[in-house]
Design goal:
The protein has 459 residues and is of the alpha/beta class. It has 16 helices and 19 strands.
């Protein structure tokens, strides 16, 4: 007679209770589904003019193009097999950068620049160089600014590596996902380990040593052993950081995900076991656990930020970027300013039309209130460090903690279940509760029950 170990049985009870709850990833607060069209380009101009030159800036450029479609992808992207549309997009992206810069009385210093996508290496070396030149002309960069780029190893040729070196790229994130051939076929991303190793070598030869690898669990036909083996293969290339993301199957948002049969996806229990086994492999290799899903070598700037309580979270995930202002450029990009958030038009044709006509392309956004900013601070604290002094933050903000908490029974229940410790003053997520950090954070989300936004499962 097989009997489940009590500890394993307790884990399964928690997984069934909390693991399938649909909650945001909290890369912003309020989250993007609650942005609205009342925030437009006129609002954005007003917010830009109000920025102080003393504020440090973070810049994000969205390149929405890829050569091929990966079926798991949840990003705002489109396939561009010919380069013509990419070239036109670059021309208009340059115009947007200049238009935003023109609204600033004096641009603050850029301390972080992140190229995302899509695949930024869909740009050829010449166009990438042109955009970097425009950015440096429009904004002053700190000497130690982090200039990072997301890369698809399959598109990374030697001319691009040289262009990145000349432009001052000092961190690169490579999407690896999984090295199992059957899994790669199922997600339509064939990417041999030998190719990745060669491209990693090319980047390091160019002096780009700070490398992040993205891995995934919960992929079709992926077992626990597959996930662990992929981590081990990735670690053989000695990355500075590793991010381990759970695949979010959201075909109602990304129609191409319907190409992945739901029955091929691992269930919640296997997803949990994959995440745990991958984490154990990374920790055994000496990496530090960062937030919910990141791992870094000791001494890496992200590990140091976590130790110092300075870790942040934005639309790129966990970051060391402490800038209060993030300026987003390109279709679907999101900006974060002291007054609130703005998001550009996602459709590239409509984005380009708006840029031609006005120089800006804001589709929606949200102005943040004092209550929003307090809740954002609490949610970010829970997601980044796992502990927040609720009472002190509320006292500093002049907001009643009882009003903020709403129904305290949710926290009491989580404490009873061992997810948190809560003394009425400070809330701390326990080791048991760490996989459910998003569920704990959701207790402070005043918008979650309003609207009809759909989110991925917690695990």
């Amino acid at each position: 007679m097989n009997m489940m170990h009590p500890a394993a049985e307790a884990e399964d009870v928690l997984l069934q209770k909390y693991g399938s709850r649909n909650v945001p990833r909290y890369t912003s607060y309020p989250t993007a589904p609650h942005f609205h069209e009342d925030i437009d380009s006129a609002t954005y101009r007003h917010w830009l003019k109000a920025l102080s030159p003393d504020e440090s800036l973070s810049l994000y450029l969205h390149i929405p193009f890829c050569k091929k479609l990966c079926w798991y992808c949840g990003c705002a992207m489109q396939v561009a097999r010919k380069y013509g549309p990419v070239s036109e997009y670059v021309r208009l992206l340059k115009r947007e950068i200049e238009a935003v810069s023109d609204q600033l009385s004096q641009p603050g210093t850029v301390r972080h620049l992140h190229w995302g996508g899509g695949s930024p290496d869909r740009l050829n070396a010449e166009d990438f160089g042109k955009l970097m030149a425009v950015l440096r002309h429009c904004f002053p960069f700190a000497r130690d600014a982090e200039i990072a780029i997301e890369l698809d190893p399959r598109s990374l040729d030697d001319s691009l590596v040289e262009a990145y070196m000349l432009a001052g790229i000092n961190r690169a994130s490579l999407g690896l996902q999984d090295f199992t051939p059957a899994v790669q076929t199922a997600i339509h991303r064939e990417q041999p380990f030998e190719l990745v190793a060669d491209r990693v070598g090319a980047l390091r030869a160019a002096g780009i040593d700070a490398l992040n690898f993205d891995l995934m669990y919960g992929l079709p036909h992926q077992g626990v052993a597959d996930a662990v083996r992929s981590v081990e293969m990735a670690l053989s290339l000695a990355p500075s950081r590793v991010a381990v993301f759970g695949y979010a199957h959201v075909p109602w948002m990304r129609k191409h995900q319907n190409l992945i049969p739901a029955e091929a996806l691992p269930g919640t229990e296997i997803r949990r076991d994959q995440a745990a086994a991958m984490a154990e492999t990374l920790l055994s290799a000496g990496y530090r656990e960062i937030g919910l899903d990141h791992y870094a070598r000791p001494g890496d700037s992200m590990a140091l930020a976590a130790e110092a309580g300075a870790l942040k979270r934005n639309f790129q995930g966990y970051t060391t970027d402490g800038a209060s202002t993030l300026l987003g450029f390109g279709a679907s990009s999101i900006g974060a300013l002291p007054n609130g958030y703005i998001q550009n038009i996602a459709d590239t044709r409509l984005y380009e039309k708006s840029i031609r006509e006005t120089g800006l392309a804001v589709a929606r956004g949200v102005a943040t209130s004092a209550d929003d900013r307090l809740r954002r601070q609490i949610i970010e604290g829970l997601m980044c460090g796992g502990v927040v002094d609720i009472a002190s933050l509320c006292a500093d903000a002049g907001i009643d903690a009882g009003t903020l908490l709403g129904d305290p029974a949710r926290l009491t229940e989580m404490q009873t279940d061992g997810l948190i410790s809560w003394d009425g003053h400070t809330i701390e997520i326990t080791a048991t509760g760490r996989p459910y950090a998003r569920v704990v954070a959701a207790c402070f989300d005043a918008y979650l029950q309003t609207g009809k936004a759909r989110h991925s499962g917690a695990v």
